[in-house]
Amino acid sequence: MSSQELQEWLTSPYSRALLAQASDGDDKISALSFVASLLVQSFEASEDAIPLYFYCGLNTDSYGDSLPGATGMVQNVIAQLLWPERHSFHLGFINNKYIQALENGDLEALCDLFEGLTQQLPTSTTLFLAVDSISFYETRDRLEDTYYVMNRMLELVDKASFVFKLLITSPGTSA
Question: With contact defined as beta carbons under 8 Å apart, do 111 and 39 qualify?
Answer without folding.
Answer: no
